[in-house]
Specification:
This protein has 526 residues and is of the alpha+beta class. The protein is built from twelve helices and 16 strands. Strands 3-2-1-4-5 form a five-stranded mixed β-sheet, with helices on both faces. A five-stranded antiparallel β-sheet has the order 9-8-7-6-10. Strands 11-16-15-12 form a four-stranded mixed β-sheet, with no helix packed on it. Helix 2 links the parallel strand 4 and strand 5. Helix 1 packs across helix 8, helix 3 packs across helix 4 and helix 3 runs antiparallel to helix 7. The longest helix has 21 residues.
Length: 526
């Protein structure tokens, strides 16, 4: 007794030879995200012979019986065939006294799977997985918000009915209606569409179309469901132009898209694997079987439609008008899951990174130098080396020539900056020495905003500007010359009073306590 295990399952040998001979059905839910119309569950009915599926979104389990009766009347009236058998699990909504009494009075045999044995209701369980996986794939690919899962799952059911099945190599639609399905009306879910809105305009200057989002098909009208996100209104139109390379929710309405958290995805995956449902349906909305391109073609009325279901439903079922209003006119974009905006550099300063100017990273370059020398760490060491001594003197000569500063006595209210020498060896591409550079750099990080600077500016030319100039010069056959301005940074005029200590190694012997009042820009300043 301590070693009891489940027995092996074998393929079912029972089969039906006609449509509606056996109907598999099951409930899925509750959904971790409530739809725009308040749906939390859906019921799926699968014909065993054709594998055709009917999809019904539901709000609560308490109304499942009404939906079931409406579905039965719909299919039996359309195909003039009585349902012979129903197969489901042992859920309370399927085994209630009301349900059993109705099946008995209708002469329908009921098959119930054993407790905790979903394999005996495998057709419906596998259909759940197919619908949910396809629906989620369409939503994630198009970035459609999760609260449109009813539209996505309904469209997924519609597409599945058009796909060939392995057993017969024909589609469920073809087996049930004895005609090949039309694939030309299929469009990418969530893509951009432009319905003709000319008849809806209040005056002649209104736009004749708007960019909408394709959310599936509408059988009653033989048209497409087109959502206009800014207002949440759904337009039903046969006259729609599609741009299936553009997904508006991905490109224009990012702030309306909730994040797909991993915990939420896990709950979706677990929900369609579970055979336990905790709330019940209300009135169904089903995807169309196909959208006719010509009004002269006969349209098979197959899938349960709200209007038809309501006519045959008991009084407690919602009216079709209420459902249509909730779906087509009161679809609003949920704002309960605001997405965090990406961190963007909004600083007005133009930088190389903003203009796409990138320099090679020296860490990834194997550099062989023909010139071996160490860069000095102090000004004393630099002045002892002939090459660095010349570089330092050249820098000071340029600074004095440009009248970069004047010496003034210090006062207590001055914010006096320190400075330092920076030494750099510049090599040619072949590794030989090109130049020894010495730069006097102010420690601008000690500057105080509003006192010795008001704004920052970095003169970086845009790459697009350079390309435009080169294009014009090439087109007009102009000669192009490149100039290199020595110490270009030192040519900038300073408007604010900035004070700096005298540079190390070049302190004025007559005025050693004086400080430099900068009149021109210096490297390191803000």
């Amino acid at each position: 007794m301590e070693k009891s295990t489940s027995l092996q399952f074998f393929a079912s040998e029972s089969c039906v030879k006609n449509p509606l001979g056996r109907i598999h059905f099951d409930l899925w839910g509750p959904s971790p995200v409530v739809s725009n119309q308040g749906f939390k569950y859906y019921a799926v009915f699968i014909d065993d012979f054709t594998r055709f599926s009917w999809f019904y979104p539901l709000k609560a389990k308490s109304n499942f019986f009404s939906v079931f009766v409406a579905f039965q009347k719909l299919v039996e009236n359309q195909f003039d065939v009585k349902i012979k058998e129903f197969q489901s699990d042992g859920g309370g909504e399927f085994t209630s006294i009301q349900m059993k009494t109705h099946l008995k009075n209708s002469g329908i045999q009921q098959g119930i799977s054993c407790p905790y044995t979903p394999q005996q209701n495998g057709v419906a369980e596998r259909k759940h997985r197919h619908i949910v996986e396809l629906g989620l794939s369409m939503m994630f690919h198009s970035h459609v918000p999760l609260h449109y899962w009813v539209e996505a799952f309904s469209t997924a059911t519609f597409i599945i009915n058009l796909l060939p099945v392995l057993q017969s190599n024909t589609s469920p639609h073809e087996r049930l209606f004895k005609q090949k399905p039309v694939y030309t009306m299929l469009r990418a879910f969530g893509s951009a569409c432009y319905p003709c809105l000319r008849p809806l305009g209040s005056h002649k200057f209104e736009p004749r179309s708007l960019q909408c989002v394709f959310l599936g098909y509408k059988r009653e009208y033989q048209g497409y469901r087109c959502l206009y996100p800014p207002t949440g209104r759904v337009y039903i139109s046969r006259h729609a132009i599609f741009d299936e390379d553009v997904y508006p929710f991905q490109q224009k309405f990012q702030s309306l898209i909730p994040r797909y958290h991993s915990t939420l995805l896990d709950s979706w995956q677990q929900s369609f694997m579970s055979n336990k449902v905790q709330e019940e349906p209300e009135v169904p909305i089903i995807p169309p079987t196909h959208v006719n391109q010509s009004s002269s073609e006969p349209e098979p009325a197959v899938e349960p439609v709200t209007d038809e279901v309501t006519q045959n439903s008991p009084s407690e079922t919602e009216s079709s008008n209420e459902i249509e209003e909730s779906i087509d006119e009161q679809v609003t974009v949920s704002e309960t899951h605001p997405i965090a905006e990406a961190q963007v550099n909004t600083h007005p300063m133009r930088t190389r990174a903003k203009d796409g100017i990138h320099k090679p990273n020296s860490r990834y370059v194997l550099l062989t130098s023909k010139f071996a020398t160490e860069e000095p760490k102090t000004i004393v060491a630099a002045l002892k080396h002939p090459g660095w001594n010349n570089a330092v003197n050249d820098e000071m000569r340029t600074i004095h020539m440009l009248h970069t500063w004047s010496l003034v006595p210090p006062t207590e209210d001055m914010n006096i900056l320190d400075c330092k020498w920076v030494f750099k060896t510049k090599l040619k591409p072949d590794g030989s020495l090109e130049k020894l550079k010495a730069r006097l750099v102010a420690k601008g990080f000690d500057q105080e905003e509003g006192l010795d600077y008001l704004e920052t500016f970095s003169p970086v030319v845009r790459t697009a500007t350079i390309r435009m100039v080169l294009d014009i010069a090439t087109a007009k056959e102009w000669y192009i010359k490149q100039l290199d301005v020595t110490n270009a940074f030192l040519h900038g005029e300073l408007q604010e009073p900035v004070f700096m200590r005298q540079p190390p190694g070049f302190i004025d012997q007559e005025r050693p306590s004086h400080v430099c009042r900068l009149t021109k820009a210096l490297y390191g300043l803000k």
